[in-house]
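Is this the right way to post structure tokens for a design question? Let me know if I should format differently. Anyway, here goes:
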């Protein structure tokens, strides 16, 4: 497989661009193809079967674009679909995401960890397994965040509506003594600047984007697939390209080729 082929990354919307930014920072010359499934956002409120169907369709599309690896830049999609994709494509490097329970459990000083995530992620067996493995000695309080993904999709990272929504989600976590917050959705890292104005400075904010990028690099290096390309980025969307174009300046720096997909 030629190493100059692109890396395929997908999410229910634009949230996975937070992971894409970590990949770009670590591997600036890799060509990237990003698939934003905006017509079906958010995944967090959909059934596991529906999400798996989207994962299969998008993976097949990205492979048609000559992707040499796949990144599921979505906690909910990973929980529902990564195992099936690995069965379908056993030779393909595939990297998924999961909430950062292990590092959060190590980081907390109060022994109380809060998790901001979608309903789908919090209900998944994968998340339950994470708690069983890594959170035995800490208290984990989960907080579903309906509506927050949509604010990021609109490019509203610090407006009054987003601020009020986010404040309502974190207030009960802080009241319970959380000193560590897991950002369990790839949309949420874009809200870090706003979060910093809403939580005490000693509260840690943890996400897994950088760890995903490092894992991807390790897999590519091990298979001789690390590329020295032009670093081009192509973004496909199943939604309204004009709406994505309006949100992109708040979420991404650099040139982007934006295209529409009917997948």
């Amino acid at each position: 497989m030629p190493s100059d082929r692109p890396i395929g990354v997908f999410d229910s919307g634009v949230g996975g661009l937070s992971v894409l930014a970590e990949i770009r920072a670590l591997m600036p010359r890799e060509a990237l193809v990003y698939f934003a499934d905006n017509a079906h956002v958010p995944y967090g409120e959909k059934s596991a079967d529906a999400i798996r169907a989207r994962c299969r369709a998008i993976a097949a599309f990205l492979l048609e674009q000559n992707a040499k690896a796949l990144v599921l830049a979505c906690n909910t999609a990973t929980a529902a679909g990564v195992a099936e994709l690995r069965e379908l494509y056993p030779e393909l490097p595939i990297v998924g995401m999961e909430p950062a329970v292990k590092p959060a459990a190590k980081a907390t000083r109060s022994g109380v960890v809060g998790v901001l995530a979608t309903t789908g992620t919090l209900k998944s067996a994968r998340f339950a397994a994470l708690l069983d493995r890594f959170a035995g000695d800490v208290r984990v309080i989960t907080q579903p965040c309906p509506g927050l993904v949509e604010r990021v999709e609109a490019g509203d990272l610090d407006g009054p509506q987003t601020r009020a929504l986010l404040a309502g989600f974190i207030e009960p976590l802080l009241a319970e003594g959380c000193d560590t917050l897991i950002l369990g959705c790839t949309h949420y890292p874009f809200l870090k600047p706003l979060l910093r104005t809403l939580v005490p400075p000693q509260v840690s904010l943890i996400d897994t984007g950088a760890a995903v990028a490092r894992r991807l690099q390790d897999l590519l290096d091990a298979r001789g697939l690390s590329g020295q390309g032009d670093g081009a980025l192509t973004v496909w969307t199943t939604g309204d390209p004009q709406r994505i174009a309006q949100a992109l300046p708040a979420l991404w720096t650099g040139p982007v080729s934006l295209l529409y997909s009917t997948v």
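Format looks fine. Someone answered above. Worth noting: Strands lie at 7-11, 32-36, 69-72, 94-95, 112-117, 139-144, 180-183, 204-206, 233-237, 257-260. DSSP finds eleven helices and ten strands in the chain.
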